[in-house]
Structure formats: structure tokens, C-alpha cells
Amino acid sequence: MSDIARDGARAAGSVTVDSLGPQGMISVRAKMDDPALASALTELGGLSVPGPLSMSRSGEMAVLWMGPDEVMVLCAYNAAQLLSEKLSASLSGAHALAANVSDARAMFRLTGPENEVREALAKLTPADCAPDALPEGRVRRTRLAQVAGAIWIEEGAANVIAFRSGADYVFGLLKTAAADSARVGYF
Amino acid sequence: MLILECPYCGVKADETELHPGGEAHLTRFGPGSSDDAFESYLFMRANPKGVHFERWRHAHGCGKWFHAARCTVTLEVFGTYSAQTTEPPSDIIEKIAARRPGWAKESQA
Amino acid sequence: MSTRLAKGGRLIDRATTHRFTFNGRQMQGYAGDTLASALLAGDQMLVGRSFKYHRPRGIVASGAEEPNALVGLGSGNTFEPNQRVTVTELFDGLEAQSQNHWPSLEFDVGAINAKLSRFLPAGFYYKTFIHPRPFWKHVYEPFIRKSAGLGKAPDKEARDPDTYEHFYAHVDVLVIGGGVAGLQAAKVAAQSGGKVLLIEQNAHWGGRAPVDGGTVDGAEADAWVSATLEELEGMANVTLRARTMGAGLYDHGYATAYERVSDHAPGSDAPRHRLWRIRAGQIVTATGAIERPLSFAGNDIPGVMLASAARDFAVNYAVSPGDRTVVVTNNDDAYRTALALKSLGLSVPAVIDARANGGGALMAEAEAQGIRVLKGKGIAKVQGGARVTGVEICAQAGEGATQETIACDAVAMSGGWSPVVHLWSHIGGKLTWDETENFFRPDPERAPITHDGSAIVTAVGAANGHLGLSEIVSDATSGTTSALKRIGLSVDAAAPEASPRDEAPMEPVWLMPQGAKRALRAKAWLDFQNDVKVTDVQLAAQEGYVSVEHTKRYTTLGMATDQGKLSNINGLAILSQALGEGIPQVGTTTFRPPYTPISLASIAGEAKGELFQPIRRTALHSWHEENGAEWEPVGHWRRPFAYRKPGESTHDAVTRECVATRESLGLLDASTLGKILVKGPDAGRFMDMLYTNMMSSLKPGFCRYGLMCSENGFLMDDGVVARIDEDTFLCHTTTGGAERIHAHMEEWLQTEWWDWKVWVLNVTEQYTQIGVVGPKSRAVLEKLGTEGIGKDDLPFMRWIDGNVGGIPARIFRISFSGELSFEIAVAANRGRELWGKLIEAGQEFNVTPYGTEAMHVLRAEKGFIMIGEETDGTIIPQDLGLHWAISKKKEDYIGKRAQERSFMDNPERWQLVGLETTDGSKLPDGAYAVAPGNNANGQVNTQGRVTSSYHSAALGRPIAMGLVHNGPDRMGEVIEFAMTDGSRVPAKITGTIFFDPEGEKQNV
């Protein structure tokens, strides 16, 4: 049995499920309206503070809104430690906490016909996965069967992040939900 | 299978994204308090057959605690509001009074 | 006999034959048949034996309400008992067996029960099997257990090979039921532009109308149904699902629906069942109505069926229920059956109409067709055993004296119709009794309500008490329009024209004949599946079970898998007559989801096998797996209990691990322990409230072992806290405590001390944390280039950041074993790499990975407590000799006030000590120490219990810790522990530190 969070994995089909391997992630706790947060993110890479349930992008980096006092910065894995230290330094005068959590999570991507991708997700979460409820760029923390996870659609593909310890479970969930033999024909 | 709207992220959360947290607006009693006050804080709960102010956490979501005013009999939800308050906001009290003539907050045991 | 007609059959495709077996008998049917219609086509009316009396039973209904025809389907891994033949779609190769008989369906020894029925009325088991007392265990219970139940359980070794799933759907309007009312409702809802989901439990659409006839919008019902379906299928905002049953309605517009995706196509890769979990803005129940039987003697003999079922089989499946079918009724609708059978060339010797004046237009039509109608008459009893052979006719107003006998082999009965109100009732919708139609229907004034107090369910059509096509279509239109308005959608829909209802009023006939004597009433069945008859309900009333809830449970009326679909109202009516009260006063029992049985597997969905629960694995999991790890569940985590080498027992492995760790070098995967960052100007203040210790005084670079109690004073977690910098603490928690303590911290910060400036972050999974333990621990780390960990450079209870094997790491000098020990935290993705380096570099030191059991033993040898071993939710630090961890300088912390209560500040509480058996045996965990005398309940007094017990390799004997009354003051005293076999084991009270009491091993 391999470590799919570290090494990646793929289940191919009409909808293909990939465990993407290490992704850079930095958790930041701060009040959303703290100007120090806005300037620290700008300094980091021209990023802006996203609105509720949204994400902002700048090149390879992105910021996901996790809650009214929490964001997650996505970046290159190898840059994460340095970037989190840089972020901590920028935030040092403010009441804030930035930490590299790149290894704490596993990230998955579902690619294929978008309606089938949404259907796969809709088997696992009580959150509405229809295009009008989960448009591109909406970040939804929710329940995926028996674990916590966050989902968002970007360029027609679904991205899923979950805790690393449950990587095999989540990959299994997604693979089963996306199986070619289990089309629902709803979306 | 309730739906409660999380006041922090705006999601109309399915009950399976939430964890219940019991009665809201309890006063904490600590060292120096009488046995009765402390016992009341730990164990005595209103348990009304009707309007209940309660705590919920958006556990599989933004993670925030919030309050809800809900009827324990009909499951009507009068509103959800911030956890950082010691009493329900006036607009929710007014809404309840309008929906439940004769109800008064003090009538809770 | 029942046969297949040469022509006709709306739903069958004669071009495709399906072969199947029933009790081994080869039979065949057509595509489109249900197993019921195919069995009847082959003259197999006898399909089972009743639950209690083992009476022969036949097919009674044509749909989900079937009470008798339950069979076991399939074999081996796919065997499934209690399947209703009326809703089982026929497929090629289907195997069915009837149930509840021995040795065979035709000759069943159990039929003796019917002969003894005088002694086996309702509730007989409350009054019998009592004496002689010893007989219960050895005679009665085994016999009852063997003869109880309906179907046969699958083999123990059978494993369901199919997959199941859930699907969450969010819609504006959910319409349940695909008959005319449902189709019209969906059409109206779709016009609004909202999202509509229309579900139908059968494989075919249209409900009753295509069989019963009539026109809608100028077209024959059948044609209107097809045209409407086509229209709906073309609309982007409408989803249609057949084979999907509305199973239950719940709070705030939540509904479950059960889709039988591939039951009709076994061998398909598709999931077998799908459970839809639906959120709807409004729900429309177009669930139709179910016909009621009439209660006359012998109404359960195979060949007696519902009048509507008889014509369903004839029209839909071209199956004649009998060569000569007598119709018996109290209403006009049953005449449709007489007319349908007649039009197919079948014989209808008579229609027995209980009403003195008979019926209206439909009766006139029947008489015009030459069908004989007897008015004011009833059936006194049915003749026949395993099949109807004739009926004896009497005056309905009399006591049952036979006036005439008519030979026949089928009886089509109708006692009226009952709207299907289950879903409406699931979430508290109330019913009203309709005096004219004699049924309960939804009370629109007391509809189920949703989160804002407004109505969420609208019943339409027959489900709402309308039995004529015109009323049905108009009701569906207006009801749906109102429903849409409640969610801010508007439509301007006009109801199409449809056939008006032209029927004379029905008359309630709750017993046939009205004054039937006891001998007849004892054979008039109410609940076919649970074998409850009219005399049973009358007996219940007589014995004082006057509440309908009590009568239900005493007689088991309505408690079978059909939830009383054919029996509830008839039984209720008998009860109300017995009590001399009106039916609405007596009331109904509660309808509960699911509407009809759904598979447990569909409820589980994907959660089976590997996905049964979210097993949590550390980054080192595969290494452990490949190296003989015996797994221990710790919550959802899997941790190695021990690593067994080939040929080693678990005990040997644990011993080897303990010895190696104390002698040279052990490695422990400690990744599962919680790691929580606490940061902010108020972090110290916050930490001081969470822990019993003073934490704010901890300096950067230092570590301190802390205890956490609940507000109720009890110990709930422990762990080492590291001060990272002025503003930042890193808290370690137990494995099981990680999420719980993180949530605990957030709860206090968000709901009580929200103005304190503290951020908390759970970083448990960011790190692989490895315990490097033993006399050679420093040596192996230095071999890997680690700097700054010399004896004076990194004293006990300090931490530094550094590199181990070139990997950035945080190094904690902490110990849970009493040995020289370091915990190394690295990014989880490099954990495997570090572990590999330690294994390689550690070879010369006999590096030995050790599991949780060895960890437990090592700490016990040093008297260290473990949450969950020494604590059980009722233990406070003072019980465990941990007074030193309780700060006396703090005015307040969580749990302080609680510990001031008299029962906690009490020297009588049992306290932690060590225990050493005098005979060298190992005390069982949890064993109680006995004290002289008995308590007020006659139980032996106790004075202590064992909290941890292990074999100690270091001492060469077992050790134990336990809580004992006045323990610390009784060193050396021998007390006795009770074993489960009644014997006693003596043990001496000792100190809790068994090994290296001076702590020298750590001081290096």
C-alpha cells in the first residue's frame, strides 16, 4: 500500500480521479478585515483577501476563504515553508498566526465531463453541487461521507482537500462515486 | 434533518454538517460561587417545549459556533445569530413575539 | 384457475419471454410482467403460508401494499427474503421460493396452528409459556425461536456483492407519485422554471387511470400520460425517475427516495439501489389511494383479492384471476372490475353489493352487460381451502345465514379506498375523517410545516381524497400552484378538462354481514400478514386495550412489513365499534418511514468494506504493514500494537520490544498524538485556564507536562506543552483528544472569552513524530548528524529546532518510558524518509520499532498515568497523586470550582497505587478489590480496582496499577481481588514506580 498523499495516485475513467501529491498550503488565522492581512497577502504574491466562500488567484498561488478568521494560501509545495515564514514575518506586528500545513492534507482532482464530475461529488456531500449553487471559484467546506473536506470547481474540474490521514478513504470515496458503472444522469 | 443558516459563512447548512451544543446563554460560575449556582451552571437546563435558544457549531464547514432560536416542537427556526453575545438580538425576540403571541423570554424556566 | 389471456396486456411485451422458477417449478412470463402477474399466469395463486396460523395465502393486491405474497429471491450471496412478488419485476433466470412452511407450501405441518386457533388468539403468548418456569429456557424459547419469523435468513457466509450509493439532490419542487395527479403537478411546477423532481415507485407511469379509464384534455388517460411524460422529459428543469419510491419525509423539506436501479437487471455493474437524499422547497404528494378489503369469513383464502388488483392484472398483464370471478363491494368503483373482466370475455357470475339500493351509473352499465347484481347482500363465508371454490351469500343486515351459494374461483372485494397519507403524516401532518367517503384524508389546515412555519407538503389527487379524474386534475393544478407560491414562484396554469366522477355514494361496511356470529368473525381477516382477525381486535377491546396504540401492539395489527396498508382502517373501525366510539375519536397510529421496506445496504450507501469507516493512517503506515504490525484501533486511527516477527506471538513481540528499548534503542510512531498551536497576546492567560498547571510561566524552549480537566472537574486529557516563543505554545494531546481538545479550545474562545486575542490551529497531521527511545537514542541521532542534543545542551523537558539526517526537524527531549528519549517532528511527507534513516543508522544499536502495547508497559513500569486507563471520566488529578500538577497560584481554571465540591475534596476517594500479586499471576484489568461485608444491596463491598495490568519484561513479573481506598497509606498491605469465576487473588499494595525509581536512566 503506497502513501497516496505523498506519491499521488490515479483512477482513470470517464471521470478521472487523481491524488495530486504534495501541495503547498499555509493556514492563516487573522481577522478578515485586518489591514495587516491584506497587505501581507499582497506582499506575498499580489494576492487579495477573498470574500466569504470564495477564492482569489494570482498566478500559481491562490487564497481560499476557510472561515471569517481563517484563510488557506495555496502555493508550490517546495516554496511553502519559506512563504509561510515570510508571511509570519509580514504579520508579526498584528495578531495573526501563519503556519505551513502542506503535509497535513491530501488534495484530489476530478476531471472529465463537468456534469459527471458534479454528480460524483453530489453522492458524497449534502452541499448542493449544481452549477448555480457551486459555481466556479466557490469554496465549500463540507462533509464528504464521513469526513470533513473542502471542494471547489475550477476550469470545469473539481478540487477536493481533506486531511492526510484519510487520504485512502477519500480517494476510495471519489473513485467509487466517479465509477463509470454508476452514472446517475441527473445533472 | 434541520437546516440552519450559519451566520458566519452564509451557508444554509444541512444538520449533518453541524454539531449541537445545548442551551445558549449560560452564565459561567467559577471559584467563589455557591454550590447552587455552580450546579445550575453545570446541570440545569431549560428544556422548553417551545422556543429554545441553543448553540450549534458548523463542524463540517467554517467551524464556527453560532446561536439559533428554534421551536423544539415544530422545528420552526426564528433565526440564527452570532455566538459572541450573551443574549438574543432584539430583532429575533421581536420575530418570536410576533409568531408566538403570549411568549415572553422570561417565561423560560 | 388464473391464466394468461391470449390478447391484451398494456405493460407486457409478448416478444420477450423470461424463464423463472418458483419452488423449483419451471415457469415463464413476459418482459413487463411482475413476478405476481407471471405466477398468476401460470395458475400459481397459492404463494405462502400465514405467519401464525400457517393458512394458505394467495396474492391479494397488485402493488406495494401486498401483504401475503412474500418470497425469497435468488440464492447464495444474493438471496433475499420477504420480497413482495407484486413489485418484483420479472427477469430471465429469476428464482423464487415461498416462505413459512414445512415441509412444503402445499403440505405444511404448521397448519396445525390453525386447528388450535382457539388457543392462539392475539396476545396468547402474554398468557402462556409461563409455567413451569424452567420450561421457558429449555422448551418454549427454542421452539418459538425456531418457528418465529417469516422469511429465511441468508446463509452466515453470504456476502452481498452489490454496490449501493447515496445521491443528494436539491430541488424547488419534489413531486412524489407518477399517476395523473403527479404528472399534472410536475407539469405545473415545471412551468414556473423551478427545479422539479418527479418520482414514481413503479417501473411504469400513469397510476390507476390507464386501467380505470377516462379522458384528460380530450385524450384517453393512457395517451395523455404518454404525451405528458414526453413533454416533461424534454424540459431541462425537470428530472423524472421511475423505480424510485418516496420513502420518508423529514424536517425542513428533507426527503428520502429509494431507487431500485438494477434489481430488474441482476448482473449489471450499476449500483443495485440508490438512496436519494433530497432537499425540496416544496413537496407534493400525489401518492394515490389504496383499496380496502372487506371483512368476511374466509376473505384470506387464495383467490380472494382486491377488486382493483383483479382488473390491474387483467388489463395491465392480460391475466385472468379466475375462470369465474364474483365481485363483492360497498361502492361503485368495484363495478369497473366486473366490466373490465366481462369485456375480456371472462365470467362474472355476480356482483354482491352490500348497499340495499345498490349503486349508480356503473351498476346500471354492469346490469346492461348482463351481469347479475345482488343488492343488500354480503358474503357469509368463502368456500375452499387452498383455493376459492365458491361463496355463500347472505343478507348484509343479517347474521350470516346462507341464502345462496355461487360457485367461483376468484373473489374481487372492495371495501372502499383510503388515501395514501403516510408521507404527509411522517412529519406531523394531521388527518381528518371524511364522513361521506369513509376515509382519512390530509387536513389542509394542519399541514406539515417547515423552518419558517409555512406548509411544506401539499397532497393532491386521490392522496388528497379526490377519486374522480376531473377533481384529481383540478386539485393537482391548484395544489401545486399554491405550493409554488409559498416559495415565491408563480404560474398561471389552468386545469385541463377531464372525466367527472359519476358514482353513487358508498356505504361503510366494516363487518360482513353486519351481525356476523362469532364463528364467522373468527375467520374474517383484518391484517393478512400478521394473521389478525376481527375477533382479535374485539378481544383486545374486551380486555381493556382501548387505546388504538395498545390494540395495535396487543394484536400486532398493522405491525407487519406492510405497516397495515390494508388493515389499519378496517381494524380501527372494528375497535371503534367495540368501544362504541366514532372512528375519528379512536384515531390512527403513527406512520413511520420508510413507506415500504428499503434495503439496509441503501442506507449504508458506499459505507461497506474499505469505506465502512474513515480509517486514519499515519505517513508510516505502509512500513508498519510490511513489517508485521498487528493493528490496534485508536478511534479511527490504526496504530501498531506490536510488530510480530515470523513465528512470534504477540506477547513475545511486546517483550522483545520492551527489552530492546530499555537496553538499547526503540522507535515509536507517535504521529497520532495531537499537536495544537496556541498563539496570541492572551495565549498564556488562555493556557492557564485550560490546564490545571501554571502554563504562562513556561519559558520558550521549555516543555511542561500538563493536565486538562472538564468544568465538571474530571481529568479529560494530558500531554506535554512546549513554549515556542513569547506568544506561542504547542500543546500535545492524546491521540483521541486531538480533535476534541481543539474543539474544546475553540468553544471557549468563541462562546465565552471572545474578546481574548488567541488563535488556535490544529497541526496534528502536519508532522510525523517519531519517538527515539533508549540508552542509544542520542547516539543514533548524532550518527545522523543531529547537533545540540548533548546531555547539557538539551536537558530533559526542553526542545530545539534542528536537522536530523538532513531533514529539518523539531527535537523534544521528553520521555514516556523513563529512558533517555527524544521525539522528532518532521514534515509528514518526509516522515518515511526519516524513519528509514533511523532504521538504517540504528542497525548497530539493535533498533527495534515498538508498538502501543510496549509503550503502555514501559510507562506503567514508571508509574506514568494514561488517560483512558487510569482515568475513566470520574477521576481527578488528586486521585492519581498528581497534586503537583495543580497550580495553587491560579484563581481560576476549568475544573477548579468543581474540585472544591465535597465529594471531590474527600480523602475517602480511591487513590492510585501499584499492585503486586503474591502468586505471580497477572491481575485482570478492571478487577475489583473486595472488602469485608456486603452493602445494602447484598453485594460484596469493594475497596479498589485495577486500572492497568501488564507483564513487565524489565522486572520479570506482572505489574499493575489501581485505585485503592486510602491506598498510599497502606503500603505493603495485602488485599484481595475478585476474579470472574468467584476466586480471589491476593496482591500487595506498592508504590507506582516499579522500575528505576531514582530516574537514573533518564539522567544521561
Automatic annotation (TrEMBL), chain A:
Pfam entry (one): SoxG
- Coiled coil ranges (UniProt) are none
- Protein name according to UniProt: Sarcosine oxidase subunit gamma
The organism of origin for this protein: Roseivivax halotolerans
From TrEMBL, chain B:
Task: List, alphabetically, the InterPro entries matched.
Answer: SoxD, SoxD_sf
GO MF entry, a single one:
sarcosine oxidase activity
Q: Which GO terms describe its biological process?
A: tetrahydrofolate metabolic process
Q: What is this protein called?
A: Sarcosine oxidase subunit delta
Query: What species does this protein belong to?
Result: Roseivivax halotolerans
UniProtKB/TrEMBL annotation, chain C:
Domain called Aminomethyltransferase C-terminal: residue spans: 911-996
Keywords assigned by UniProt, alphabetized = Oxidoreductase
Q: Which domain of life is it from?
A: Bacteria
Residue ranges constituting the GCVT N-terminal domain according to the UniProt record:
620-890
Which residue intervals define the domain FAD/NAD(P)-binding in the entry? 172-430
| An MF annotation (GO) of this entry | sarcosine oxidase activity
Residue ranges occupied by any SoxA A3 domain in the UniProt entry: 523-605
Q: Tell me the Gene Ontology biological-process terms attached to this UniProt entry.
A: tetrahydrofolate metabolic process
Matches recorded under NCBIfam families: soxA
What does the similarity note say? Belongs to the GcvT family.
Q: Under what name is this protein listed?
A: Sarcosine oxidase subunit alpha
Read off the lineage from the record: Bacteria, Pseudomonadati, Pseudomonadota, Alphaproteobacteria, Rhodobacterales
